[in-house]
Amino acid sequence: MQGGADTGVRSVVHASFHLERTYDAPVARVWKALTDEKAKQKWFRAHRTAGIAERHMDVRVGGSERVKGRWEGGMVSTFDATYHDVIPNERLV
Known about the structure:
Elements: H1 27-35, H2 37-43, E1 49-57, E2 64-71, E3 76-82, E4 86-87, E5 91-92
Antiparallel strand pairs: 1-2, 2-3, 4-5
């Protein structure tokens, strides 16, 4: 890394980006797939896991989601999310 506290040069640049997806399904169905724990569990899971160690979902501004699973080889992976903006059937940040 170049720079640092002594030089005043920073090696990290902050920016933003926008992702947009189009699904061949009604908005309400996509929203449910992203925000309903049982619905999301059907597609957001590791198919090669030995088991889910932890799962919770609280879809509201300031809420969080965590899925933690153990792979057949013993590795543990964790998905953590914090919800910053929730507009039903429109936007989920």
